[in-house]
Amino acid sequence: MSAPLPAPASRLPNVGTTIFSVMSALATEHGAVNLGQGFPDFDCDPALVDAVTQAMQAGHNQYPPMPGAPALRQAMAAKMQALYGLACNPDTEITITAGATQAILTAVLAVVHPGDEVIVLEPCYDSYVPNIELAGGVAVRVPLTPGTFRPDFDRIAAALSPRTRAIIVNSPHNPSGTVWTEADMLHLQELMAPTHVLLISDEVYEHMVFDGQVHQSVARFPALARRAFIVSSFGKTYHVTGWKVGTVVAPAPLTAEFRKVHQFNVFTVNTPMQHALATYMGNPEPYRELPAFYQRKRDLFREGLAGTRFRLLPGEGTYFQCVDISRLAVPERELPESDFCQWLTREIGVAAIPLSAFYGNGFDQRVVRFCFAKKDDTLREALSRLSRL
């Protein structure tokens, strides 16, 4: 009789079932309107689907080059030049990835060595810290300013050390919906100037910036761009999150290291979708119109919430709206954020995500996050239910 196999030592011992999976399952169980899911419930442009079919019929069904289909990398280079004034070589400085999450993991694995420190600004997207840990690095958590979620540059400066290898920034910011200003980027540039610290800039919501603001991409700031991996997402921009196609723009030396990892953890990305996206990008109007498209949904949702006891936090970008729950006239307002969200799903029929899920220490500040990337009818139904509060 063979001995039982020992349980493997976990590479991520602190990772369990995420709150996102928990809330989605609970929403399904109770028939709740799921505003916890961070993706649309509406379809993409049919012309984009047609372009995929045409690419398949044209024979684009085998492996593309490891860095990505040349046509799509060229389209990205043209876009970076037109929008941000960054001239980049599509052959040596642009890589197509299996979504932005894979892009961030690959960037971390490419440059972070055991013992290196990586600064993350909390609250943050839940993949950042596990990515750092998989690379053997140490996550150094620096909180954004509670309430406003603005970067605290004094605390960032204090976190920099000789062991700092990289810093991860995210604007427009998930989960708070705040947007970094030009002054913020210039401050970051000044802070990093005397260091050799690298930058991973998560810009997947780049086209969701409202009220006339301009997205301050790292690409606009030469002293930042020369040390940065700039991550973007076709899925977020074109309402096709399930396609899992993203891109990384980085200087040639960084791209070379990135591709060493990329070729072994993914190698390449779905061919017909790459060709379809390259064709579709010939018309810039879809992403030019995106700020107005999502601002209208944001305004619809905020106007509906204005009649409740939720306190609206600023919503400058992304498709997320954060609210303070401390003024709700229900006994459940005293529950921890995570318990409140479960109560809201079961009893009111609307799912949200607690902001504490985006902090390593579960910091509870009485704030939850809704996603308004939904059909207007979905938002109205959710607002009708939330009006009971």
Return the CATH topology of the largest domain. Aspartate Aminotransferase, domain 2
| Poorly predicted runs of 5 or more residues | none
Tell me what the CATH architecture of the largest domain is: 3-Layer(aba) Sandwich
Structural class: alpha/beta
What CATH first level of the largest domain would be assigned? Answer: Alpha Beta
Number of helical segments? 15
Tell me the name of the CATH homologous superfamily of the largest domain.
Type I PLP-dependent aspartate aminotransferase-like (Major domain)
- The ordered string of helix (H) and strand (E) elements is HEHHEHEHEHEHEHEHEHHHHEEHEEEH
Radius of gyration: 21 Å
Instruction: Estimate the strand proportion.
Output: 5-15%
How can the largest sheet be summarized? 7 strands, mixed
* Number of self-contained structural domains: 2
Tell me the number of strands: 13
* Through-space gap between termini: 62 Å
Q: What's the shape?
A: globular
Mean pLDDT metric? 95
Helix content: 25-40%
Report what the structure shows.
With 389 residues, the protein is an alpha/beta fold. The protein folds into two domains: 19-44 and 288-386, Alpha-Beta Complex (Aspartate Aminotransferase, domain 1), CATH 3.90.1150.10; 60-283, 3-Layer(aba) Sandwich (Aspartate Aminotransferase, domain 2). 39% of the residues lie in helices and 14% in strands. The chain contains 15 helices and 13 strands. It has helices spanning 19-30, 46-57, 70-84, 99-111, 128-134, 153-159, 182-192, 222-225, 234-237, 252-265, 271-280, 285-288, 290-305, 337-348, 376-386; strands spanning 33-34, 94-97, 117-122, 138-143, 164-170, 198-202, 228-233, 246-249, 311-312, 320-324, 350-351, 353-354, 367-371. The strands form three sheets. Strands 2-8-7-6-5-3-4 form a seven-stranded mixed β-sheet, with helices on both faces. Strands 9-10-13-12 form a four-stranded antiparallel β-sheet. Helix 13 packs parallel to helix 15 (376-386).
